[in-house]
Amino acid sequence: MITTRQGVRVLGPADLDEFLALVARDPVVNVFVDHRARTTRLQPRWLGGEMWGLYADGELSAACHVAANLVPVGADAPAARAFAAYAPSRVRSVSTIVGPQVPVDTFWSNVAARWGSPREVRFGQPHLEIRTDPLVAPDPLVRRTVPSDLDAVYPACVAMYTEEVGVSPERGGGADLYRARVTQLISRGWSFARFDETGRVVFKAEVACASPYAAQVQGVWVAPDRRGQGLATAGMAAVVEQVRRDVAPVVSLYVNEWNASARAAYERVGFVETARFTTVML
C-alpha cells in the first residue's frame, strides 16, 4: 500500500482495511461512510467521487468522503482545515456538507469564500441513537413496504423531501432518479410505512445506510392531517424494532434542533443524543 507520512491524499481499494479501522472508532456516527466504503470498496467509479485521507507519521488519522455529500471522518478542527486546503486541487462535486459539528463548521468556514452562499445551513442538529428495544409499544400496522406499494410510497417521499429540504426532488427533471432511489430502498427492505384504509401512506421512514454496527434512519414523515395523533412515536418504535432485528443492532438518525415535536417523539421511543451535526446545503 502506498502511503505518505504527512498530508492529504486520495484513498483507494488498497486502503480499505485501514479506512474501516478509522471508521470503527465511532461506527454509529460514521455509519454513512462505513456503508459507502463497504459497498464501493473505495473504487472512485462507484463512489461517484473520492475519499481523502489525512496522514500523520505514516498513519491514517482522519478522512473525508467527497462526492455529492462531503462527510468528514474522525476529523478535528486541524484535520478539517487540512481538507479545506486540499479541496481547491480537486474537482468539486459537493452539494451538501454534513457530519459532526466541529469539522463541518471548520471546513465550511475555510471554503465558504470560494464556494459561495449556501441555500441553507443547519447548525447543532442532535445526532440520536437507540441500542435497546423501544420504550413504547410499536405500531403493529407499520410494515416493510413491497414493490407493489411504490405508487403509494413515492408521493409521500416527494412530500417529505420537499417539506424538509425546501425544493422538490423532481425539480429539474429529477423524478426518474428519485423514483429509482425509492424503488431501491423498497427492494432492499429498507422502507417502512403505515397505510390507512384507502391505501394512503400516513407514516413512513427509511433506512438510508447500514453497516454491521448501525443503521441510519431518514425520511421520517407523517401525513399533515394525521399529525399530533402519536403516529410518529409508535411508528418509529416499530421501525426501531424491525431494523434492530433485521438490519443492525443500533439505530441512529439526526434531526433539526428546532423540530421540537420530532425530538420529543424520538425521546419517547428511547433515542438518546450522542453528538451534534451541521448540514450545509449548497
Automatic annotation (TrEMBL):
Pfam family membership, one: Acetyltransf_1
Top-level taxon in the UniProt lineage: Bacteria
This enzyme's EC code(s): 2.3.1.-
Origin organism is Nocardioides imazamoxiresistens
Q: Does the keyword Disulfide bond apply?
A: no
Q: Which InterPro entries match?
A: Acyl_CoA_acyltransferase, DUF4081, GNAT_dom, UCP21603_acetyltransf
Q: Which GO terms describe its molecular function?
A: acyltransferase activity
Question: What is this protein called in UniProt?
Answer: GNAT family N-acetyltransferase
Write out the entry's keywords from A to Z: Acyltransferase, Transferase
What is the uppermost EC class here?
A: transferase
N-acetyltransferase domain segment(s): 140-282
